[in-house]
Structures are given as structure tokens and as C-alpha cells.
């Protein structure tokens, strides 16, 4: 009996070790943070940081590009799955185990360059129609505070809705100094108007991911911050879209 118990424990330990060293990672198309490169491989500023953490910890992984709602849902419901770049909000705190922050973001209201309404404070936006994305933290944040939100499944439908006057504002997350929007043909017609919140973003992991692996990933990220790797990876994308 003792031999059977010991064998079972060893098998369980081996399975745990194998599981702990492998992650399914999801993200969305959000240049220059995460996007498909010309070779069909997911790349980008945040992606490079995630890959470096995996290499430093010897973690086997796979990155999949999905619509944001699906990417987030998989990390919530599937064992061994993580998602980036995820805003860490009070509503999400208990849903995940967190690695980061990997970056900081500004939440901004964008509107038509020829808009005619005043927007000097967040309260000015309360009477306006705000475009968001389903399942996005900005949608949750504004909706819970009583703003008039109009959510879509694809966030990039919102600038077109602005140009058609179907919404007044678009709630956008952007890293300070980012030029990722410059690649779009509407970039001179849809512009940032007001910063309404600042957040830190993380790799958010399903609670099934072992604490030991979360600790190793956070330690690797801290080392990357100390040795200048994060700064180097950020600078790699400084001129993206220009």
C-alpha cells in the first residue's frame, strides 16, 4: 500500500512539474503591443517581453492571437492559460494570478478632429455616446460608472462609427508616446481629446497556474527591469507606425 501511495505521489509530482512548465498564452491584435509579423509569428512590444520571460524561466508556451473577448475568456476558463496585455482592475483582481506590470497605459477619449462639443473633464463625457469593445476593461469601467456606452465586438469598428456620427467618443487604451494609430487612414480625422484614467497592464493567468511559476515569471520580469531589457524592448518599437 505504501508503495502504491508513493508511486501515485511521484506521478502527481511529475505531472504537476510538466504542467507548471507549459502555458497557453492568448492576446489580441493591438499594434504595436501584439500583432502578426510578416512571417506569421506573433510579435510586438508586449509580446517580446512575454517571450523573454518564458525563455528566462524555461517555460514551454504557445501564443495565440484572438479577438479580445475570446482571449480573455480562455484565460478565465481554461487551465494553464494566460492573457496579455490585461488591465488589472478591482473587478478582475480575484479572477487571475498576475505577472507584471509589463507596461502602463492611458485610457483616453478619442473623437473626430472636427468635433464641436466641449470636453474638458470626464463629467463632460457623461452626456455623450462612447464607443467601447465587448469584454474590455474600459467598457466595464465606464458602464459601471453610468456612462452611455455602445460596445462592439471589434474595437476598430469604433473610428468608423465616429466618422459616421454614430458615436461621439471612442474609449482607447494607449501607451504614452505610442504612434500605433498613425498607420490607419483615419488617423488625421480621429484624434485623442482627453485622458480619463491610467492603468498598469499584466500577464493575467488562470488560477490553476501554480504559484511557483507565477513567482518565477515575476522574478524574471524584475530582472529584466533591472538589467535594462524592458527599456531596450520598448525602444525597439518607438518609431512604429511613423
TrEMBL record:
Record domain Solute-binding protein family 3/N-terminal: where: 26-237
Record's keyword annotation contains Protein biosynthesis: no
Gene3D superfamilies, A to Z: Periplasmic binding protein-like II
Pfam families in alphabetical order: SBP_bac_3 (PF00497)
The UniProt record lists the keyword Oxidoreductase: no
Alphabetical list of InterPro entries matching this protein: Solute-binding_3/MltF_N (IPR001638)
Domain of life: Bacteria
Position of the signal peptide: 1-17
Stated name of the protein: Polar amino acid transport system substrate-binding protein
Organism: Duganella sacchari
Lineage, uppermost ranks: Bacteria, Pseudomonadati, Pseudomonadota, Betaproteobacteria, Burkholderiales
Amino acid at each position: 500500500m505504501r508503495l502504491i501511495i508513493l508511486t501515485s505521489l511521484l506521478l502527481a509530482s511529475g505531472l504537476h512539474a510538466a504542467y507548471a512548465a507549459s502555458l497557453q498564452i492568448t492576446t489580441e491584435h493591438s499594434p504595436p503591443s501584439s500583432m502578426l509579423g510578416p512571417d506569421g509569428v506573433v510579435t510586438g512590444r508586449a509580446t517580446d517581453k512575454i517571450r523573454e520571460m518564458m525563455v528566462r524561466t524555461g517555460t514551454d508556451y504557445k501564443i495565440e492571437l484572438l479577438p479580445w473577448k475570446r482571449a480573455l475568456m480562455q484565460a478565465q476558463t481554461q487551465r494553464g492559460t494566460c492573457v496579455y496585455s490585461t488591465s488589472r482592475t478591482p473587478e478582475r483582481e480575484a479572477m487571475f494570478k498576475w505577472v507584471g506590470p509589463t507596461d502602463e497605459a492611458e485610457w483616453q477619449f478619442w473623437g473626430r478632429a472636427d468635433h464641436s462639443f466641449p470636453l474638458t473633464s470626464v463629467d463632460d463625457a457623461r452626456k455623450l455616446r462612447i464607443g467601447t469593445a465587448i469584454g474590455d476593461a474600459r467598457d466595464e469601467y465606464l458602464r459601471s460608472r453610468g456612462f452611455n456606452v455602445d460596445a462592439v465586438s471589434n474595437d476598430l469598428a469604433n473610428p468608423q462609427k465616429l466618422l459616421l456620427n454614430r458615436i461621439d467618443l471612442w474609449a482607447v487604451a494607449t501607451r504614452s508616446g505610442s504612434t500605433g494609430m498613425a498607420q490607419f487612414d483615419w488617423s488625421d480625422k480621429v484624434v485623442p481629446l482627453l485622458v480619463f484614467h491610467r492603468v498598469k497592464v499584466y500577464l493575467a493567468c488562470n488560477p490553476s497556474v501554480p504559484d511557483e511559476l507565477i513567482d518565477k515569471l515575476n522574478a524574471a520580469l524584475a530582472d529584466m527591469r533591472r538589467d535594462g531589457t524592458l527599456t531596450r524592448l520598448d525602444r525597439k518599437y518607438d518609431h512604429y507606425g511613423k
